[in-house]
Design brief:
The protein folds into three domains: about 5-120 and about 280-375, 3-Layer(aba) Sandwich (Rossmann fold); about 125-275; about 400-505, no CATH class. The chain has 14 helices and twelve strands. The protein has helices at about 50-55, 80-90, 110-120, 125-165, 170-240, 250-275, 280-295, 300, 310-325, 340-360, 370-375, 395-400, 405-410, 485-495, and strands spanning about 5-15, 20-35, 35-40, 65-70, 75, 95, 330-335, 360-365, 380-385, 385-395, 460-465, 465-470. The strands form two sheets. The protein has an eight-stranded mixed sheet with strand order 6-7-8-3-9-10-12-11, sandwiched between helices. A four-stranded antiparallel sheet has the order 2-1-4-5, sandwiched between helices. The two termini are about 20 Å apart. Bound molecules: adenosine-5'-triphosphate and magnesium ion (MG). The site of adenosine-5'-triphosphate has 17 residues, from strand 1, strand 2 and helix 1.
Length: about 500
């Protein structure tokens, strides 16, 4: 059984705007397994980025998580306090974006940008201290967060009531009163626990401080003892050296030994410093190692250059290096190649594939182009209007997809030979201020049934790994298969690139 590393459950996100609530993500669920590449594919505006920004904890300020869970390491990320989230964001979960320039600071040397986070968060004793009272501290912070979320949810409900045209003035007033009472009770309930939680965390902190103090003394004593031994050795050698003939072989050897001991003392001091904090040297060494890993040539020289001295592809490599510095478990790639030209695109995709394999990373790969993920995704989810409408293994999506929207996406992949798109999808996605009632794609779907306009389809099972939300899979629906013109095209697509497509080994 593969290890599940991230679980998104019924994630529902809206944005407050002057025109009302934009329902950007509407009940998205998926699992991410260790070491897999999971692609999320859909047209512009389908909610791909918003879903993943929620995982990263970087939603825009007007965004609200209305419902759902993001479970990672026994924690629900949607309910974490800001401070707690910091420990995960960029450390365990890294993200790279479409435009490498916007993620880089143009006025800062790239070496500094690569090492910055490591140095800023590099106070090891402070981190150790925090780890020691982490649980109690975050129990307290998460309770504060729960109160904040409760208030936001309340405001959200108020807005819903105010905007609901089916309610009379009186009904609205009643509902608002009702909500107010519920809110008051729930928040008072939360607040009751606060003082005890605070006291517990302050006690834990006090204990942690004295423990770390003890550890510091211990560490320094051990290291200083080792350094003193070396210094004594050095002194003895020096005394002997003074008595030697400067032209003798023995003198040369002794001199070499002294040099070595000096180096050992230097190393021991650096090791001691590293126990307390990340040193510049340590960060530099790691940066150079990772710049090599992402194939930036001449990293020692490049370390001291500015972003403008890099090509687009090289900049994206720098951005990937920054993400890798924290040794993340999950890497979210949001259209990382869209801004690059085709040959460079291929190189960056290969690089992502390679580091994924080497590091056993779990990758979420976002794109609007199914062609991009054909030879890199293990599984694919297709998103439309804030929902996943179909998901399955790469093979299932390419050869046996069931949702007409997936067919539409497949037919808009540019042809390998002619580079032209078969068809572009007619119509436009719905306005997410007013999401349609049934299958949101019905308006644009030539196979739409009457029920598609009335009721949202549930997921129908195609195989253990393959599900699609389309009424076409209902037993009473007319049998419709993937249009031949698309399946033929995919067959050609496959034949053209045998040994490359679907080659995930
Ligand atoms: N801060 C915001 N305020 C209001 N609406 C927003 C905000 N951010 C995103 N949206 C809306 O949420 C919906 C989903 O956007 P999202 O960025 O996730 O799309 P996407 O699938 O990533 O598209 P693209 O391929 O263009 O990147 C869109 O309708 C978008 O307009
Ligand atoms: Mg996006």
């Amino acid at each position: 059984m593969k290890e599940k590393i991230l679980e998104v459950k019924n994630l529902t996100i809206s944005f407050k705007t002057p025109n009302g609530l934009v329902r950007a993500v509407r009940g998205v669920s998926f699992d991410l397994y260790k070491g897999e590449t999971f692609a999320i594919v859909g047209e512009s505006g389908s909610g791909k980025s918003v879903t993943n920004r929620a995982i990263m904890g970087i939603l825009a300020r007007n965004g609200i998580i209305d419902d759902g869970e993001i479970n990672y390491r026994n924690q629900d990320l949607t309910k974490l306090s800001e401070a707690n989230f910091h420990q995960i964001r960029g450390k365990k979960i890294g993200m790279i974006f479409q435009d490498p320039l916007s993620s880089l600071n143009p006025t800062m040397k790239i070496g500094k940008q690569i090492t910055e986070a490591m140095l800023v968060n590099g106070n090891r004793m402070k981190n150790r201290l925090r780890d020691l009272y982490h649980v109690e501290y975050h129990d307290y912070l998460n309770k504060l967060q729960a109160i904040r979320l409760e208030k936001a949810a309340y405001q959200n409900k108020m807005m819903d009531i105010k905007l609901d045209e089916s309610l009379s003035k009186k009904e609205k007033a009643e509902k608002i009163k009702e909500q107010k009472a519920v809110k008051k009770e729930r928040i008072e309930n939360f607040k009751k626990d606060l003082p005890a939680l605070k006291e517990k965390y302050l006690e834990a902190k006090k204990r942690a401080v004295s423990q770390v103090k003890k550890e510091k003394v211990e560490l320094t004593r051990e290291n200083n003892a080792a350094i003193n031994d070396l210094k004594n050795k050095l002194a003895t050698k020096r005394t002997r050296l003074n008595k030697m003939d400067q032209n003798s072989e023995a003198y040369k050897n002794a001199l070499e030994e002294i040099r070595q001991i000096r180096q050992e003392i230097k190393d021991a001091k650096e090791q001691l410093r590293r126990k307390f904090k990340v040193t510049k040297k340590e960060a530099y060494e790691k940066a150079i190692r990772i710049m090599r890993e992402v194939n930036i040539p001449d990293p020692e020289k490049r370390f001291h250059q500015y972003p403008f001295q890099f090509s687009g592809g090289m900049r994206q490599r720098v951005v990937i290096a920054i993400a890798l510095m924290a040794d993340p478990e999950i890497l979210i790639c949001d259209e990382p190649t869209t801004a690059l030209d085709v040959t460079i695109q291929g190189q960056i995709l290969d690089l992502i594939k390679q580091i994924k394999k080497e590091r056993d990373l779990s990758v979420i790969f976002i794109t609007h182009d199914l062609g991009v993920v054909a030879n890199m995704a293990d599984r694919i989810a297709v998103m439309y209007a804030g929902k996943i409408v179909e998901y399955g293994t790469s093979e299932e999506i390419f050869y046996n997809s069931k949702h007409p929207y997936t067919w539409a996406l497949l037919s808009s992949v540019p042809d390998l030979d002619t580079k032209v798109k078969l068809v572009s999808i007619p119509g436009t996605p719905p306005d997410m201020l007013f999401p349609p009632k049934g299958d949101a794609f019905a308006e644009r779907n030539e196979y739409a049934l009457k029920i598609d306009f009335e009721k949202h389809p549930p997921f129908f099972k195609v195989s253990d790994t393959h599900y699609a939300a389309t009424w076409l899979l209902h037993e009473n629906a007319p049998r419709v298969e993937m249009p031949k013109i698309i399946s033929e095209r995919i067959a050609r697509f496959k034949a053209r690139s045998v040994g490359e497509q679907f080659d995930k080994e």
